[in-house]
Design goal:
This protein is mostly helical. The protein has ten helices and no strands. It is globular.
């Protein structure tokens, strides 16, 4: 299990650039949290990178993420990675979020997508984005309407982090790969 193999798998199954960016964003947040918590950075990063790799082909519950879990098992990914990915789907009640990696993925998933949406409407993207501004946009149900606000709040609570700190941490993590996230849009 290494990042290059996971990235190849992601590219094989995901053609949509927006979904690819989302998965890269979640990977960045997961790697940053793993580093700060002394966890396995590669494993956590791969969980973030592959958590939605089956979504484009099988977007409906429960196919996503169960179809992907079957593929990951065939490719001999560790059960902990597969379990974490399965646990990010609330409707799969047989996979409660138990470990730190499970909780981190859930906490980072919706928030990462929301932060990218926030950055896309700012000329300076993630640079200077503040939790206060993000919270204000969270209150606007029309902004990034597909993002589940309750999941963002519940994710931070379950992971044991204060929401503003979590937002700031993830902004910093995504900032590390900002050019990768916005290059196609900004043309740089």
């Amino acid at each position: 299990m290494n990042r290059n193999e996971a990235l190849t798998l992601m590219h094989e199954y995901v053609q949509n650039e927006s979904l690819r960016r989302h998965m890269l964003a979640v990977e960045a947040a997961m790697r940053a949290y793993a580093s700060s918590l002394g966890e396995d950075i590669e494993k956590w990063g791969i969980v973030g990178l592959l958590h939605d790799f089956d979504y484009e082909r099988w977007p409906n519950a429960p196919d996503h993420p169960t179809k992907g879990s079957e593929i990951l098992r065939q490719k001999r990914y560790p059960e902990e990675v597969i379990y974490a990915i399965l646990s990010h789907a609330d409707y799969l009640t047989d996979y409660p979020r138990i470990s730190a990696v499970d909780k981190a993925l859930y906490a980072c998933d919706e928030l990462s997508g929301f932060l990218v949406a926030c950055a896309l409407v700012r000329p300076e993207r993630l640079n200077g984005l503040e939790p206060k501004s993000v919270r204000k946009k969270l209150k606007n149900a029309n902004f990034a309407a597909a993002v589940n606000r309750a999941d963002i709040i519940r994710g931070a609570e379950d992971f044991g982090v204060e929401l503003d700190s979590h937002i700031q941490f993830c902004i910093g993590a995504l900032g590390v790969i900002s050019q990768q996230l916005f290059v196609a849009i900004d043309g740089n």
